[in-house]
Amino acid sequence: MRHRKAGVKLNRTSSHRHAMFRNMVTSLFKHERIRTTEAKAKELRRWADHLITLAKRGDLHARRQVLAIMQEKEVVHKLFEQAAEKFGAVSGGYTRVVKLGRRPGDAAPVSLVELVVTKETKKKKTRKKKGKAAGAKKTTAATQKQSADKKIGKAKKAEATSAKAAEGDLKEDVKGKTGQPEPKKPDADAQEDAVETKQKSTSGKKAAKDETEGSA
Q1: Which of 89, 106, 91, 109 shows the shortest CA–CA distance to 42?
Q2: d(CA 166, CA 173)
Q3: Contact 113, 28 (CB under 8 A)
């Protein structure tokens, strides 16, 4: 029975298997996704989850434990800097295995192992939503401005019509009070004719006076 014997042998010695998974987990955190066979991918998840748990702890002892497994110091420092931000909200399920089919040649099942980053995907979605919301806000602001301009124009027209109606009502009230139509304003031509007739009448009177004086 295989009690208390976790992991797979993969037809390799323990030293070969240990070195292989050290390389693979370093490449996984360096590139955030790698392609390998399905059996290796399932075993690699155990290694990656353990290292992320240590990085979330973040103390010096955890950093030394991770440095004993991973082979590049820069990748270790990157993991410890970003672990709380990328994986702080969840307590497991840090990796994902996607089956890609079979490999040509030996028909071995191939899978893709990648890190599951929840916070970055949320940020990307909110950015897209913000961009759409900004465009919608711009369009709504333009439509609101147009509707406001239309309302102002309608209000001005209504005020003009109401003023005309009020003037007509005042004229009718004046007619009703006096019993006579409102006197019309004389035109310019009529005024000129009246002035000419006045001048003619005055000149005629002067001529008649002159004749009477000459006869006398």
Answers
A1: 109
A2: 11
A3: yes
Strand partners, 34: 113
CB atoms within 10 A of CB 25: 24
The two tokens of residue 46 are 């155990």
Element (H, E) at 99: strand 95-102
Question: Using one digit for the tens of pLDDT, what is the confidence trace for 178-200?
Answer: 555 555 555 566 677 777 777 77
- What b/e readout covers 199-209, taking b as 16+ CB neighbours within 10 angstroms? eeeeeeeeeee
Q: Rounded CA gap, 17 and 43, in Å?
A: 11
Cα–Cα distance for residue pair 71/213, rounded to 1 Å: 144
Against a cut of 0.70, is the pTM above it? no
Residue 159, φ and ψ in degrees, nearest 5: -65, -40
Structure tokens at 86: 């990328």
List 113's β-bridge partners, or say none.
34, 97
